[in-house]
Amino acid sequence: MNPTIEKFGYPDSLVADYANWVVLLRPAQATLGALVLAHKSKAQAFSDINEESFMELARAVSDIETALRAFRPYQKINYLMLMMVDREVHFHVLPRYDSPQQFGGTTFADSGWPAVPNLGSAPDIEPHTRQALLTALKDCWPA
Fold this sequence. Notes:
Elements: H1 3-7, E1 14-17, E2 21-25, E3 35-39, H2 51-71, E4 76-80, E5 90-96, E6 101-103, E7 106-108, H3 127-140
Antiparallel strand pairs: 1-2, 2-3, 3-5, 4-5, 6-7
């Protein structure tokens, strides 16, 4: 796996694994259910991934949206491809909520709603809550 995937906690944060992509639980939950969709290669430009990866991306995105909708209905979903610090191809996937969400005794407020998501705003999460969230998302993943 590439350095970006490892930085985001792989393999402990793994939600779903595809031939060319992984879906990880984002360590900082700027919104409840925030994920990272990362390409497995060391490509640092979106245009450098192969055609097979682009085709598989459609399935990964569909699975993400299906699972997140089943987990907790959201109002919008944002895919942010920033790659400034973590250079390999990846997206931050942020379900957006117009009201605070509760999970495992923690409140997750979407402090950027209804504008740009605030990636710097995330509650501290206990390890057992993070594990419960990971399990809940995996349980919602399409077969």
